Predict the structure.
Amino acid sequence: MIGLFIKDLLNLKSQLRFILLLLGVYGLIAITNDNSAMLGAIIAIMGVMIPTTALSYDEKAKWDKYALSMPLSRTDLILSKYLLGIAFSLVGFILNFLISLWIGFTSYKESLILSMLLLSAGLFFLSFVLPPMFKFGVEKGRIVMMLLIFSPTLFLLILKNMNVKLPSADLIEKFWYILPAFSVLVLFASIALSVKIYSRKEF
Amino acid sequence: MEYALEIKGLTKSYGDFVLDAVDIRLPGGCIMGFIGENGAGKTTTIKLILDLIFKDEGSVSILGYEGDNTYKIVKENIGVVLDECNFPEVLNAKEINMIMKRIYKTWDVNKFLGYLERFNLNVKKQVKEYSRGMKMKLAIAVALSHDSKILILDEATSGLDPLVREEILDVFLEFIQDESHSIFMSSHIISDLEKVCDYITLIHHGKLVFSAPKDDLIEKFVLLKCSESELADLPPNAIYGIKKNSFGVEALVERRVVSDEHVVDRANIEDIMIYHIKEVSA
């Protein structure tokens, strides 16, 4: 498992440089505009981009079938990708928290809530994106990912058209506390689903 | 008798292809060559052995273990080289060493570095800059640098020049010096197999044609050159394949049925394979 994790990190070396550059640019924008929303979103997406990029590299090298001839189980291969996503999501969480504090337009509590929210969103995204990637491969999985990105907007639009009243600010605030716990639950369900999908995969 | 690899009644069907009840037994300390046309089922068999695809029926036991929870342990003792190098291209040998060290409990850094030096592989060059020969040598170095007792090779020497193949075959022969070691290798380069193998297994259209000691095969068969009428005098069950030409016929027959009057040539493994497949498909 650790071996797989290290393999992905080494594999992503050049990508990591690119991500750092991206973070630098958006960081600068955030500082000059006193607004870290965009940066926060980019950081949250990082937790999804990194494991999917690692997956696409594996696919290109047909690494999986080779790895399975080593003392590694199918579950190990799945877990290592989630671990990668979770690790970067947590790094993103800390970054987001520090940046929004540093830029100083929010209080300690608000920064924490905002970062938790972005973390939850990232984990949700990860949970929905990885199972289709394991099932259909990275290319087709990306299409599913695109659909997923637009579905919340679509959902809200439909609700608006149906004249459903938006929930009160009070309710939304309560929701913020539940969301992280809920995202962890969804994450576990996603891991279980991916393990199941992958245990039936033939190479 | 303890077999390094024992396959019984292995069956797998895809819509238009069936691997049909294949039996293979590879005794410890031996090299078995696994031959057949493209699409005969060699890679399917190897994938089934490695649990990359799921069998419909039959059993596979490697070093006495059948595919259950112990499988992860036995994989420490299996070295695998597939028909291409499956390392991500941006890695170099030094990084691969770092990774493998954490995947195999029995990983031997010195052994690995020794092979890299012997194969003249640059440790800091990315895999994508390697030639095909270098990539295969890297994969072989990995397969040999943990506690491997059996090597499973799928077309590991194809696409390589004779010098590199010779070098690799020498490594295999060294590996087999230890009597607890064995090798199961598929290849299209029959002359390589003839050089190193103790056993030859032929499959055709998903069915096992024969699996026998190489020397027995060489001993059993001859190439007979004669007229069609002369061939008709021989018992049909001793004839394994016929090629007609303007001078008469050339046939693979059992040595026991030929007499001093017949003109015979030694049949090599390639002849034996080709004539068997012709017979089966006729």
